[in-house]
């Protein structure tokens, strides 16, 4: 047996450690996120994490871990009936760490709470992790925002615990609202279930994760419970507005007490206006498509389906599920009950996502706003983008177009790859235009696009397709969830080379005619 060369091993690890230290911030964050996801998947793969004696597939543990850490909510296995209390705890921790941000949480605990000095490198890492945070203001934005989020998390956990304890969920719900094989625990007058539900769903809703441990059909047992739905809406709207907006709202409230002058940041103005604009336009289109939808031989439109109860319940369902596309992922009805036009609108809203520096995914509201503002400026014959008496840098505007085009390419390409999940390509899915003699649920390209947009927007809404897609499709959705979480602009920097910054020459310019 040869002697072990410890010096060689030490040198190897020293070089590896040096390479890790010299990585760009984005590469460092992505590798660390991957490490956390793998650790989470190994913990979920342990027998103590899942119910029953049958070993689950590792790909399902990996998918759940990635979906939890990216605050997406897509699942290949039902959370409530698959995972034990320990497994559900692991999922909740991954959601919390992924939502707040590992490096942001580290800065908050060690540098702010314990008073350790914060380095410039740490500032830049947090700014890269939570795109939209200015490096010079990292410490105070992180301190205020995370403190506010923890206070809201504590209050909402207590509120939801009481709400679940006294609630009356639908144990015998509408025909189309729940399936016959639904797994469901009733929390009414059960403090143990109510406490577990309260804490888990407060974490999930505030971090826009979309995970639930209610049953196999999300919030459908509370389909007619407007109070609970409003609480969830408040939580996922707060989680989706972003750290800078939370910080601005705090400063605005403080200025009202101290009578000091306050001015909203440009980030907050554009982000909030876009958030409201996208939500209201989307809601108007959804109501238009659902109310004008006609009955066919195969399907009764949601609005005309008496099994969903009163018109008031249907209005609330459309409002809640439309706002849930802002990266929340909770649903009170089955997505397959809605028209293809509505699913396309939902896909577009999930693709846009919520604010930067939040728990949201997608291209983000600021990116979408810059694209619209740029197009409007060109239509008016302006060479630059102006908003609120400010002129935006051309580099920022160009980056928004690049991020949007790359995102479209990723979503469409992944959707096409998911075609391998159809039966005619060796998968398990039935296409919609195929006559199905076994009464199995059938899917179309719209369902694939919806699922991919949900992964990219880290939303978690699903037509029920995730558990049936192929292995390569699941792996691609995992990659897409990571990109959606970190942001396309930051993800593009992963491929940036230091040599590009050292180039000292330019090529000769030549113009081209465009359409």
What does this entry look like structurally?
The protein has helices at residues 6-21, 25-45, 58-69, 79-82, 85-100, 102-113, 120-129, 138-166, 191-206, 226-240, 243-258, 266-291, 311-324, 340-352, 365-379, 394-417, 445-456, 471-486, 488-492, 498-501, and strands spanning 385-387, 390-392, 430-431, 442-443. It has 515 residues and is mainly α. The chain has one domain (11-492). It has a two-stranded antiparallel sheet. Strand 1 (385-387) and strand 2 (390-392) form a beta hairpin. The chain starts with 5 loop residues before the first helix and ends in a 14-residue tail after the last helix.
Summary of the model, kept short:
The protein has 515 residues and is mainly alpha-helical. It contains 20 helices and 4 strands.
List keywords for this structure.
515 residues, mainly alpha, two-stranded antiparallel ribbon, two-stranded parallel sheet, 2% strand
């Amino acid at each position: 047996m040869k002697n072990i060369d410890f010096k060689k091993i030490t040198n190897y690890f020293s070089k590896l450690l040096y390479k890790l230290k010299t990585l760009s911030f984005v590469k460092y964050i992505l590798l660390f996120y991957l490490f956390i996801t793998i650790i989470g998947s190994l913990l979920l793969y342990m027998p103590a994490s899942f119910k029953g004696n049958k070993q689950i597939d590792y790909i399902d543990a990996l998918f759940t871990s990635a979906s939890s850490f990216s605050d997406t909510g897509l699942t290949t296995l039902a959370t409530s009936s698959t995972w034990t209390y320990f497994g559900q705890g692991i999922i909740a921790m991954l959601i919390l760490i992924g939502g707040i941000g590992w490096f942001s949480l580290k800065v908050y605990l060690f540098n702010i709470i314990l008073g350790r000095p914060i380095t410039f490198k740490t500032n830049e890492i947090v700014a890269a992790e939570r795109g939209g945070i200015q490096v010079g203001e990292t410490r105070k934005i992180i301190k205020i925002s995370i403190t506010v989020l923890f206070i809201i998390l504590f209050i909402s956990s207590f509120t939801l615990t009481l709400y679940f304890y006294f609630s009356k969920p639908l144990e015998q719900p509408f025909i189309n609202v729940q399936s016959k094989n639904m797994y469901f625990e009733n929390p009414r007058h059960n403090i143990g279930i109510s406490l577990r539900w309260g804490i888990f769903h407060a974490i999930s809703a505030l971090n826009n994760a979309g995970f639930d441990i209610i049953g196999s059909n999300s919030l459908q047992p509370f389909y007619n419970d407007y109070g609970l739905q409003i609480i969830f809406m408040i939580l996922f709207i707060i989680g989706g507005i972003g750290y800078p907006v939370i910080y601005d709202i705090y400063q605005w409230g403080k200025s009202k007490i101290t009578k000091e002058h306050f001015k909203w940041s440009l980030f907050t103005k554009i982000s909030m206006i876009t958030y409201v604009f996208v939500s209201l336009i989307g809601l108007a289109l959804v109501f238009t498509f659902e109310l004008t939808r006609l009955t066919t031989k195969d399907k009764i439109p949601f609005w005309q389906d008496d099994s969903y109860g009163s018109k008031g319940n249907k209005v609330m369902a459309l409002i809640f599920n439309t706002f849930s596309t802002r990266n929340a992922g909770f649903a009170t009805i089955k997505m397959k009950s809605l028209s293809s036009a509505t699913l396309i609108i939902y896909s577009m809203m999930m693709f846009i996502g919520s604010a930067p520096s939040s728990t949201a995914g997608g291209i983000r509201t600021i990116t979408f706003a810059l694209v619209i503002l740029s197009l409007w400026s060109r239509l008016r014959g302006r060479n630059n983008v102006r908003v609120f008496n400010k002129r935006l840098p051309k580099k920022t505007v160009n980056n928004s177009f690049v991020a949007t085009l790359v995102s479209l390419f990723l979503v469409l390409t992944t959707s096409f790859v998911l075609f391998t999940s159809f039966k005619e390509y060796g998968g398990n899915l039935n296409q919609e235009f195929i006559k199905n003699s076994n009464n199995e649920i059938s899917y179309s390209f719209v369902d694939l696009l919806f699922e991919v947009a949900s992964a990219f927007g880290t939303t978690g809404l699903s037509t029920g397709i995730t558990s049936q897609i192929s292995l390569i499709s699941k792996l691609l959705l995992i990659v897409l969830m990571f990109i959606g979480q970190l942001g396309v602009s930051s993800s593009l920097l992963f491929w940036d080379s230091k040599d590009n910054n050292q180039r000292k020459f330019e090529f000769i310019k030549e113009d081209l005619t465009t359409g």
